[in-house]
Amino acid sequence: MNWMDVGKVGLSGAAFGISCLALWISHRNWLRSNCPIVVACIETAGAGDGAFIAYNLVVVNTGNRPAVNVRLYCENTDLEQCIQPGPHAGKKPGSTWSQIRKCFNEEAEIPVLLSGKSVSNSFGFTGVNQQSFWKYNSRLKITLRYADLDGTNYSKELTLLIKDSAAFAGGIWSVQDDTKR
Predict the structure, then answer these.
(1) Spatial strand order in the sheet of 153-161
(2) What are phi and psi of 70, to 5 degrees?
(3) C-alpha triplet 150, 155, 161: angle, nearest 5°
(4) pTM of this prediction exceeds 0.90
(5) What single-letter DSSP state applies at residue 156?
(6) Which one of 9, 34, 111, 162 has the lowest number of neighbouring Cβ atoms within 10 Å?
């Protein structure tokens, strides 16, 4: 065997190794880019007079594949630190607390969330003085768990901001509606 043959074999082996590495990187990037990406946020459902704001908890799949078994988790202590003390802070059945707590129960699992779709649920309100459930501008820590159709599990830690989503810095134009005249 001469040195030219050894060089050819070595070069072929290096090319094969680089090709295998490129294939692995391509497959890894494909898996990362072709997956469900599920996020949650708090959006303003409506705002009324006297600084009353009603909220929705919205769960969105921004990825390009469906997500299955989507669940939200939140510790009671994290919820309690965001609640405004007052008449709406009670934990009895049918209260705002029990309605919000349902969002984090096992029964609230979203079986399938298609790509580009969202689901929402009412999620409390803020108001003036003691007429508020949430503390305005408070931050709620949650965990979001879901899987893709192949069974790969995902878990994301999120912090939700309880704030009017219509105006990120607090200012919004008030436009008079001509149909109400």
Answers:
(1) 110-113, 67-73, 139-147, 153-161
(2) -80, 125
(3) 135
(4) no
(5) E
(6) 111
